[in-house]
Amino acid sequence: MKNIVLVGFMGTGKTTVGKLIAAETGMTLLDMDTLIEERAGKTITEIFAEEGEPHFRTLERELAHELSLTSGNIISTGGGIVLNPDNIADFEKTGLVVCLLADAATVLERVKNDSTRPLLAGDKETKILSILDSRKHLYESIHHKIDTSGRPSPEPTAREIIDLYRSFQS
Ligand code: S3P
Known about the structure:
- This protein has 8 helices and 5 strands, in the order βαβαααβαβααβα.
- The chain is an alpha/beta fold.
- It has a single domain (3-169), classed as Rossmann fold (3-Layer(aba) Sandwich).
- It has a 5-stranded parallel β-sheet.
- α1 crosses α8 and α2 (32-40) crosses α4.
- The chain is globular, with a radius of gyration of 15 Å.
- The N and C termini lie close together (11 Å).
- The structure holds shikimate-3-phosphate.
- Shikimate-3-phosphate binds at residues 10, 14, 33, 44, 78-80, 117-119.
- Shikimate-3-phosphate (S3P) binds at residues 10, 14, 33, 44, 78-80, 117-119.
């Protein structure tokens, strides 16, 4: 059984949608940021502050490779997974990779009260606009994409992904 790999910018709903798919299908949800935090014994914010972003990207790269060797799981990635093309290439080998998209206003609405994302510390709107702009082509290059902008609830997105996954399994 293939994995379902959820990719997309911060605040596009990867973890929320992943939980819904897990509840509906009984598949296990593996959240990459949570696994990185558990293994490091510190939060993502602490890893960025104490060891720097390059170290975080190394941990992320190693975990992506490891998880790409599993099967039948839902893998919720961090928003920067697309920065290293090897991550996507690995996940494509054993999984259905789906990119969730959202416009800047939707992202801002979803993350406005969040303080756990080091890359958005400070002026959130400015950071979102500039990071989204620099990564847009990477998210757009993923074959399966769902635009979640303005969608009030994550359920239809989860449903769409389950249907897509089942169409590939049968
Ligand atoms: C990041 C996204 C975060 C987390 C880290 C870096 C990024 O994950 O991996 O803060 O570079 O976009 P979420 O997409 O789950 O917020």
